[in-house]
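**Polypeptide and fold**
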Amino acid sequence: MIDSKTKLVALIGHPVEHSLSPIMQNAAFRDKNLNYVYLAFDVLPEKLKYVIDGAKALGIVGFNVTIPHKIEIIKYLDKLDKSAELIGAVNTIKVDKEAIGYNTDGIGARKALEEKIGKVENKNILIFGAGGAARAVAFELAKNNNIIIANRTLDKAKKLAEEIIEKLGKNSDEVKYVPLNTDLKDVDIVINATSVGMKKDDKPLATAEQLRGKVVMDLVYNPLETPLLKEAKKVNAIAIDGLGMLIHQGAEAFKIWTGVEPNINVMREAIMKYLNYSH
């Protein structure tokens, strides 16, 4: 029950209507009997500068941050946790006297992969994209794998690859950058960290034949079966939808706000129930 002691947590992004975060976070709060509520706020880029001061004034205790604000929000925060500092993007904020930025996307992606295929190390991993989500996933997985950044704007891919090499002490054989339409021959795992697949008429970033024998993960979770995952399924490749990462990064954020470990299964069940009702 919402009352005058209820603490508010929210998602900020533009757009946010597609988000399933309110479904799973509110289910997790109820499961742990915590007096919190989670809402979604569509924040236009030009209004982003008001969010943190507004949160402090209203006593909002935390945020998730999604496209397109993950990098831009940093300039309005008081501090960054090590993960956010390394990645240069924020997806979770805790607000008290200070607003502190965190990034749970990378660990969320790793846990989603490992849930399906076991320990992920010494693999060749190609990541489509060089934005906020791609940065988080690339930095996390580059710790013990070879990473290839594929992006439409090659300069952005190059910049991200160079940052990873410098900050993690890697070499140019371990972290590479390539154009978007690249050969996937020696790649073990393919991850889509762009928004391609969210629109009905989006073309897949790789063909079924290119994905044969690979693990394919798409961070887009609405729709659950993206064009890329449809291609992967045509050749019986291991296809991992965006729900795993969404849930695991959300669970890490939940812990940051509340200090409590949420029940992953409760979060997943709430989403699946909602999707069955709404489609």
